[in-house]
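Example record

The entry below shows one chain as it appears in the dataset: sequence first, then structure tokens.
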Amino acid sequence: MQADPGFYGPLQYGSAWLWCGMALLALVAGWYVFVLASTRVPKRSTQGSSAPVRSALTDLPALKAACLQRIRDLEEAVAAGHLEERTAHQQISLLLRGFVRDATGVDATRMTHQDLARHPLPAAAAAVQVLYPAEFGPGPLPSVTASAAQASAAVRAWS
């Protein structure tokens, strides 16, 4: 049969195709490494302390002053009749939670009161607990001045 002129053996692939396939596999593997490395959450330092580590870039006195000023602005807006009381209570809570996030790195804007209490954030947890009825309660609202004072005290007590 080998003398049959119509029979041809299988053709071999060129070596260029082998190298193209290897390069394609290397590119895919490199892409996975890049994606995993660039989206990885950085490790926190755990040098015997369970307290959140504040970034060296956070200027705490300026952050406190800005938060306190925003709380005063909300009080003035309610007093002038430009803002509803429940909305003011919600924004005060959001300001306090944003302050905690910026000061500690803990994303308190998405945490419930119980979540805050589980973290080492007692001042924020106490202030948010006072603000909860004003934010969500069906009954008569406490004064915005009292809620603002509670939030301001929590911000001033921060160290």
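Notes for this example: The radius of gyration is 30 Å. DSSP finds six helices and no strands in the chain.
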